[in-house]
Amino acid sequence: MTWWHNGTSDPLLTVWQHAADAYHAAHPNVTIKVDPIQNEQFQTKVPLALQGSDFPTIYQQWGGGQEASQLSSGKVLDLSAATSGWVSQLGPAAAAWQVNGKQYGVPYDLHVVGFWYRKDLFAQAGITAPPATLDDLNADVAKLKSAGLAPISIGSKDRWPDAFWWEYFAVRECSLNTLKTQIPALKLTDGCWKRAGDDLTAFLATKPFQDSFLGTPAQQGAGSSAGLLANGKAAMELQGDWELGTMTSLTSDKNLASEVGWFPFPAVTGGQGDPGVALGGGDGFSCTVGAPAACADFLKYLDDQDVQSQIAAQGIGLPVNPAAASSLTDPALQSAFQYSHSASYIQTYFDIAMPTNVGQALDSAVADFFAGKGSTQSIIDSVSKASSGSDK
């Protein structure tokens, strides 16, 4: 079997290689060829592979509307029967990898987006506690700038990190009912969507990001947004819980875990959104047609407590198997885990919740907005324009 995953750096790179080797040792007739691929390449590489004849046996899958879009290729294997005996142990999380009640993918971890921050830089700027409201965040940005520090790092070169900002403002401005009805319908007609853009406009005007942020990658190298935070060159970054593992590979600082903390996106005064709603998702895998029975069995192995405990202990993600939660020992990741489990609702990243072409159009519109192109309305319009040709 060939296996495409996005663990191009440690600790995930080694965890996945060990998993493949261990499975082979227990099943000598099954060989897994591991092919790590940079995360940003999946958006184009997977659709192209599924349209051709040279596709992997197992590939990285984020579920939602993106997964549904892939079904038209006829290459995504229905795992319903093969997983029926064990997928229930994952709880409601597995539903995000279903389409019309059928299981076309299986998650191996869960994610929530929030702020990673440097405790030392907060102290240097006189900030005594993480911000609870947008007003607090704006005040902290001002304090950090007065102290000569870059308040927030962002990897806008890769474009997708920009979307987290507009999406979180939308989650705070829009009611839960609006999120649950208008995102699946691909009709962003409520006034809250424009208010989210207005919030973003006002925030960008404070110049909260590092210099030349439009040319900064998200995760590649010490000069990436993750690297800037890891090396104390920026005080905050809005990213997923996976960022601790990413940062560890980008710095020589062995005390990094004790120097960073985590807090949720602040409440927006006057917003109709529930402050307890989180933006997140997860990572998983799908099998392709023609895959042997070992493919689904291997996905089960990745969700067994042993591998799940490694994922938790290494700070790779929040374990999808609750039996492994005790292995999540990092205080910052414990905070993210507790927040995700106490959240009133987890809104899946918009570009995953929506069909692939619509999500990509939205990401591009937000990235263009960050670059000074377009308007708050053009972000909203990108969804309706792209969806006019989508299979909803």
From TrEMBL:
InterPro entries: Bact_solute-bd_prot1, SBP. This is Extracellular solute-binding protein. Transmembrane segments: none annotated. PANTHER family: ARABINOSE-BINDING PROTEIN-RELATED, BLR3389 PROTEIN.
